[in-house]
Amino acid sequence: MAASYYVVFSRIFYHVVPPAARTTKFLWVPPAFVTPIFVICDIVTLLTQLYGAVIVAGTQVTDPDAASKFSHGKQVVLIGLGLQIGCFGLFSVIAIRFHLTSKRFGKDFDQRTGAAPGEKYFAVGGLKRKLDRNWETLLWVVNLACLLVLGRTIYRICEFALGKTGYIEYHEWCAYVFDAVPMLPCVALFVYYHPGVYLPYLGFRLPKNIRSNQADYLPESVEISR
Q: Which pTM was predicted?
C-alpha cells in the first residue's frame, strides 16, 4: 500500500510543479526517483523484519541458546520496524512539507491548464477524460493516509516489543482499534478520491520527456473543453 502512496505523491509533484522548480533542493530527494528510493527502503526494512522473524520461528525452546536466539530475532525485527518508521516518516515529512509549500504553484498551475476561474474540470492533451483541478484534495488524502500508516507501524512496534505476555497480546480490541481501523480509511479515501480523477498519468513510469524535464507536464498547446 505504501508504494501506491509514493507513486501518487510523485505524480502530484510532476502535475503541479513546473519543470524549472523540480529540483532535489526543493523536494529533498531527486524528484524522478521518489518512488524507487522509498520502495527500495521498504524492501530493505521488510527483509530485515523477515530475517528476524525467521530466527525466532526457527528456534526451538529446547535449544541450549534458545533465549539468546529469541532475543536476537526480536531485536532484528524491532530494528526493521524502526527503519520502516524512519523511512516512511521521512516520506511523510516530505509530503507534508510539499503540501505547505506547494500553494505557491497554485496560480501557475491554473495558468498552465488554462482553466477559467471557478471551473472545476479541465482537459489535458491526449486524454479523453477531464481532470479535477482540485489536486490539493488528493494531497490531503495522501498525507492523512501516511499519518494513519505511521500510527499503525508504531502500534506494531509496541506489540512486538511487549511480547506474548504484554497487554496488547491479551486484549483483542487493540488489534481492531490500532491495526485494522486505520487501514479502512486508507483504502476508502483512495476509492472515493480516486487518483485517476485528478492525475493524467498513473503508470509506474512517467513519459520520458516529463521525467527529464524537457517539457511541461501540461503542454501549452492543450485545447481546453469548456
A: 0.81
